[in-house]
């Protein structure tokens, strides 16, 4: 059973290898003439002012948190979806309860304005 | 000895898949410029080789000979590994996708789970690149891209749960086999809302127009890869196009019956169309979706960021949740011709 995953491992190694090989080729074949202007961060012709790791909107953080909750829910739904015709009404009820609680939370954040971007 | 032979065999299979895939990626860039050119009544690239057919190789060669700039303020290590992080999942996900009946590198039972995991990893390349560049535009682009990709991944995940319910398996070959039959047997029809949601999320997931605010040439110049040049930039470019092909391939497998011909199982037409190998049908379906990508880019104006987030959270997620409930009621009651 585990052996059937060996090709995947080989594929991942090969894909990483390709991702490493191409930039390495670029480093070898390309010229290398650094100067201060070229290496400064791009800023539409200005000298870069203030730190570029600036404060950012808290909503990006909020979206990330919400994503974790929902993605976890999807991970729970996967096995349930496959055996739905076997677990029957009881399984459906259990999942409906679970998703229902999550939907209450979803509606709450919706009403609270967590999904508003302007 | 047997182990080495097996390893060589696996490597051979991977190379046979990977080389056409990379050529497809190269020619996708050519096709895009050509089709957009025609949409805008131009000719597109037509100087390098007949009809410009060697253009992708000329581009690759040019990028290879350009300097890779390492900005002074950048976190060097992260800056260099970010392109690798973004291309690895786009290619590695193909390990479990069947391109024809039995033509799959790893026929594993948790296939779809693996694909979803790989699709989720793609966002790391973008975020790491934006952060490591230490440039304002790059950070802005990475934040936007990150939030957008994770938002649409939820809708996409829900849509795939619908496919799992209809097929009853995580094994991708079995998902295709569950759709055996003519075109109206494929999942796009019974799962039409999920198919549409999947495709919209797929376009958003790859940061393509009309959802390309992450790059937004006219507002934040190029977003997360503004500081990249030469081959490092080319790898991001490859990753974006490889992701498009991956999303299209998944769409063909999940909703358009993978390698089956549109008349499979019909009395007269079925055997005739089955003469065409399944791989050809699969490629045609993938090409159809890829054309849609280019078509969208040529015709739709860019969405605003708040509109994108509203569409993802307030339209697509509720639609999928409702349809999942409807579908499970269908399955439990045995109602409807498809379940």
Automatic annotation (TrEMBL), chain A:
GO terms for cellular component: NADH dehydrogenase complex. The gene is ndhC. Signal peptide: none annotated. Its main location: membrane. It is found in: Membrane. It comes from wastewater metagenome. It is a multi-pass membrane protein. InterPro entries: NAD(P)H_OxRDtase_bac/plastid, NADH_UbQ/plastoQ_OxRdtase_su3, NDAH_ubi_oxred_su3_sf. Keywords: Membrane, NAD, Oxidoreductase, Translocase, Transmembrane, Transmembrane helix, Transport, Ubiquinone. The keyword Protein transport does not apply. Its EC number is 1.6.5.-. This is NAD(P)H-quinone oxidoreductase subunit 3. GO terms for molecular function: NADH dehydrogenase (ubiquinone) activity; oxidoreductase activity, acting on NAD(P)H. The chain crosses the membrane at residues 6-29, 60-82, 88-108. Belongs to the complex I subunit 3 family.
Automatic annotation (TrEMBL), chain B:
The chain crosses the membrane at residues 6-27, 77-99, 111-132, 152-171, 183-200, 220-238, 245-263, 275-296, 316-338. InterPro entries: NADH_UbQ_OxRdtase_su1/FPO, NADH_UbQ_OxRdtase_su1_CS. Keywords: Membrane, Oxidoreductase, Transmembrane, Transmembrane helix. GO terms for biological process: aerobic respiration. The keyword Signal does not apply. Its main location: membrane. It is an enzyme of class 1 (oxidoreductase). GO terms for molecular function: NADH dehydrogenase activity. It is found in: Membrane. The keyword Membrane applies. This is NADH-quinone oxidoreductase subunit H. It comes from wastewater metagenome. The gene is nuoH.
């Amino acid at each position: 059973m585990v052996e059937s995953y060996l090709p995947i491992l080989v594929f991942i190694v090969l894909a990483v290898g390709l991702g490493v090989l191409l930039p390495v080729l670029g480093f070898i074949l390309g010229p290398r003439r650094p100067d201060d202007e070229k290496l400064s961060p791009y800023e539409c012709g200005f000298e870069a002012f203030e730190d570029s790791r600036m404060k950012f909107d808290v909503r990006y953080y909020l979206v990330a948190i919400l994503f974790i909750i929902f993605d976890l829910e999807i991970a729970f739904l996967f096995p349930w979806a496959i055996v739905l015709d076997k677990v029957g009404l009881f399984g459906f009820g259990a999942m409906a309860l679970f998703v229902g609680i999550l939907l209450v939370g979803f509606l709450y954040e919706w009403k609270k304005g967590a999904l508003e971007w302007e | 000895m047997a182990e080495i032979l097996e390893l060589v065999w696996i490597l051979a299979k991977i190379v046979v898949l990977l080389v056409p895939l990379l050529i497809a990626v190269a020619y996708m860039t050519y096709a895009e410029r050509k089709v957009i050119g025609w949409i805008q009544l131009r000719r597109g690239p037509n100087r390098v080789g007949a009809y410009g057919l060697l253009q992708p190789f000329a581009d690759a060669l040019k990028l290879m000979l350009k300097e890779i700039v390492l900005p002074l303020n950048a976190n060097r290590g992260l800056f260099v590994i970010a392109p690798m992080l973004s291309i690895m999942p786009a290619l590695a996900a193909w390990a479990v996708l069947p391109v024809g009946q039995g033509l799959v590198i790893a026929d594993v039972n948790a296939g779809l789970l693996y694909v979803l995991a790989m699709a989720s990893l793609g966002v790391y390349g973008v975020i790491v690149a934006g952060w490591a560049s230490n440039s304002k535009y790059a950070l802005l682009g990475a934040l936007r891209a990150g939030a957008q990709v994770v938002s649409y991944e939820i809708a996409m995940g829900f849509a795939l749960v619908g496919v799992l319910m209809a097929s009853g398996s995580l094994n991708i070959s079995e998902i295709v086999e569950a759709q055996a039959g003519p075109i109206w047997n494929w999942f796009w029809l019974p799962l039409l809302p999920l198919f549409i949601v999947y495709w919209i999320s797929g376009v958003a997931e790859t940061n393509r127009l009309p959802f390309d605010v992450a790059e937004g040439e006219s507002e934040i110049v190029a977003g997360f890869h503004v500081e990249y040049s030469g081959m490092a930039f080319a790898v991001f470019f490859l990753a974006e196009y490889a992701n498009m092909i991956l999303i299209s391939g998944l769409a063909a497998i999940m909703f358009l019956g993978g390698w089956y011909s549109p008349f499979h199982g019909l009395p007269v037409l079925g055997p005739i169309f089955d003469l065409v190998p399944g791989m050809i049908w699969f490629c045609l379906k993938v090409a159809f979706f890829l054309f849609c990508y280019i078509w969208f880019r040529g015709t739709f104006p860019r969405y605003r960021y708040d509109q994108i987030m509203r569409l993802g959270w307030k339209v697509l997620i509720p639609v999928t949740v409702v349809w999942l409930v409807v579908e499970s009621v269908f399955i439990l009651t045995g109602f409807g011709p498809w379940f």
